[in-house]
Amino acid sequence: MPDSPADPTPPAAFAAAVESLRGAVLRTELAVTEITAPSQIAPWSFALAADVTPARHGEDSDLGTGRFVLLYDPEVPDAWDSEFRIICFAQAPLEPEIGVDPFLSEVTWSWLVDALAGRGATYDQVSGTATRILSTGFGELASQPDGAQIELRASWSPKDLSMAAHVEGWSELVCMLAGLPPAIEGVTLLSARKVGRE
Asked: Which pLDDT value is given to residue 187?
C-alpha cells in the first residue's frame, strides 16, 4: 500500500493531467462530478463519477452509470509500465433478451476500444472484463420482471500526457451502454440495443 505523499502539493505531471481531464468535452447526456478517489492504490489519484441523465442526485442512474479514475505513481509500477494508470467502470441495464446474447461481452469491449480510438487516445497494458448479469426474482420478489445488465471494468496505461481523450472515450462508452447513439464516426450502435452477429 503506497504511503500518503508527505508533500500535499501534487507533482507537476499529475496536476497537468488533472487539468487535462477537467478540460475534456464530455457527452452532454452525462451528469459528471468529481468524487473522492481511492488513496490506497497510488500516491496520487483523481476520480469522476458519471450518470446518464435524468438521474437523482446522489444515486446511480437508472439508465447508466460509470466511474473514471486516474492514478499516478512516479515509481512506475511494473504492471503499469508507466507513471499513469487509468481505471474505468461502466454499467447499464438491458432488456433480458439482449442480456443473453452470446456476443454482448465482445461488443461491449469493442465499444470501449472504438470510443478510445475515435477520440485519438493512445495506450498500452490494457486489461478488463465485460460481465453480463441476469436476474430472476423468487419468493417475495417473484412478481418482479426478469432483469439484465452489462458491466465493463477496464484499465490501461495512457501513452499520451493529454488525458482528455481518455475520459472523453469513457464518457462515450457510458452513453453507448445506456443505448444512446454514438457521437463519434465509425462506431455503430445496433438498433434496439440488440447486439450480436447477423
From this structure: 45
For 52-120, give the DSSP string: ESS--TTS--SS-EEEEEEEE-TT--TTTTSSEEEEEEEEEEE-HHHHT-TTHHHHHHHHHHHHHHHTT
User: What stretches in the chain show pLDDT beneath 70?
Assistant: 1-7, 54-62, 95-102, 137, 146-147, 184-198
**70: in domain:** yes
Query: What is the rounded distance in angstroms from the CA atom of residue 22 to the CA atom of residue 6?
Result: 25
The total number of structural domains in the chain stands at 1
Give CA–CA dist 175/171, Å, rounded.
6
Left, alpha or beta for 139 (phi > 0: left; psi -120 to 50: alpha)? left
Q: Cα–chain-centroid distance for residue 139?
A: 35
pLDDT for position 23: 93
